[in-house]
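User: Just a sanity check before I run the rest of the batch. Below are the structure tokens for the first item. I only need the designed sequence back.
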């Protein structure tokens, strides 16, 4: 998936925000993708 490279991954967000759950990280990723488009 080429698009995953230019958007933050769950792994990179998890490293930045270790206290957040995976579901929260995924919701952040979804919001950031919507903001980009």
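Assistant: Here's the designed sequence for the first item:
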């Amino acid at each position: 998936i080429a698009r995953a490279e230019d958007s933050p991954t769950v792994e990179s967000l998890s490293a930045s925000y270790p206290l957040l759950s995976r579901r929260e990280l995924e919701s952040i990723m979804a919001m950031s993708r919507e903001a980009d488009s």
